[in-house]
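Dear colleagues,

For the upcoming journal club I promised to circulate an example of a predicted protein-ligand complex. I picked one with NAP because it came up in last month's discussion. The inputs are reproduced below in full, followed by the predicted structure.
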Amino acid sequence: MTIAEEAGAVAAQKSPVRTRAVIIGSGFSGLGMAIALQKQGFGFEDFVILEKADDIGGTWRDNTYPGCACDIPSHMYSFSFEPKPDWTHMWSLQPEIFDYLKGVAEKYGLRRYIRFNSRVERATWDDVEMRWHVFTADGQEYVAQFLVSGAGALHIPLIPEIEGADEFAGAAFHSAQWDHSVDITGKRVAVIGTGASAIQLVPEIVKDVAELQVYQRTPPWVMPRPNNALPEWVRRTFTEVPGTRAAMRVAIYWLHEVVGFGMTKQPELLRIGALLGKWNIRRSVKDKALRRKLTPDYRAGCKRILNSDTYYRGIANPKTQVITERITRMTRDGIVTADGVEHPVDVVVFATGFHVTDSYSYVDVTGPGGEDLVDRWNREGVEAHRGVAVADMPNLFFLLGPNTGLGHNSVVFMIEAQIRYVAQAIAAVDKARAQAVAPTRAAQDAFNGDLQDGLAKTVWNTGGCRSWYLDSHGVNRVLWSGMTWQYWLATRRFKRDEYRFIGR
Ligand code: NAP
């Protein structure tokens, strides 16, 4: 670029947008936070939502693979303050959840706060001004007192590096980036991975393809789950009979907490899950060798427990082949496994999950004194105070941050606890007539010490598997260690003595 061009580019750049709060992302977290700020009296000028894509919805916008659904019942996997009595299924499909979020955004007039196609790349704290300077990929700068990340941890697709993948002549895409322009009808399709996404898409696509190869590295535990459309009378009851919908939500909540008790306190109880999982295999798969291949050798719950009535039927379909040999490379025509066999395919679907324990590196955060948060977390492990705020990083909040994911209940419950907590933190700053707030190291260390002690006894640490809940040092940085009501209690009140107020 010449100097003149550079000067022109700088002049063309828009001036910084000044606001009180920047929210990153417009999924459940971002929208929920926006509503909380509205309720707290934040006006139109007072916050913006920066969304990398061209629509709202986060996970429920991105994941459009066939059969995509939620594995937590919808009456629980929705905002408590925005109930929807007429969910069509107990476990709703992606389009309905996406529509639900669009309805919420509409109702609260949230679209006007959102800057679409605004991918946040870096954020820098100005020590003097005591403001975050947030930069998006298009060069726009936002200056804000508070920065709230609602990006979550399951938004960066993980595509394994496979030698020769570039040579593959067919179509290849990740489950969260489903290429709807590719017609799989009558094709030979490979699905790599057998996690939450794969078990939903396998039984759907097997109907259309000519041949389905399922590459399984570790078999999942899959519980039986009938998910027929809810009859009209049930939906009418939830809509018209007071208390029924709320009662259903309470029942779902406590049923899942019982599973959570097994996972966090009594992993022995999860033997029941293993029995159910084995029965689920047995009733659909007659071939004993295949049953053995599909049966996990680790405790149920160590990896996410999945549920489906159709997965094993899809696996038992004569068109399906389960391949457990390690993938060594790809060629122009297909996939080569460690036994030297080349499996010809037309389409490869990577149902290989997401960058999770390193997902925080999606944005470069530089705090006071130029401290790089990503460097700190790479060095010390990803930790936050109560999973939300970070020691010595003023006015920075994460929704579904470190150790606040769940293996057993609705993350929307966690998000609601967190947005309430962040709203309280912001109110506390205003009340103290301060500029900023950050948790003390001591408070954060004490919280995380207890958390890791609690995790030591859980099925995720003791269940004999290697899951994406664990970072490269084998430390669980993803899941909450206890029951969700315990997290609700832990975040119910913002405790001022755990924080340092700055710029009073
Ligand atoms: P996932 O559960 O992490 O599954 C990834 C799969 O890919 C695993 O079977 C994994 O095997 C396999 N894999 C990864 N790298 C591989 C490689 N290099 N070679 C061969 N296999 C490889 O990912 P996901 O299915 O996308 O789900 C991720 C998370 O999203 C879920 O746990 C859940 O939290 C969420 N999700 C939720 C829903 C819902 O209904 N609410 C639906 C879909 C997803 P290993 O097990 O051996 O690592």
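Two points we might discuss: The longest helix spans residues 244-264. The two ends are 45 Å apart (CA to CA).

See you all on Thursday,
B. R.
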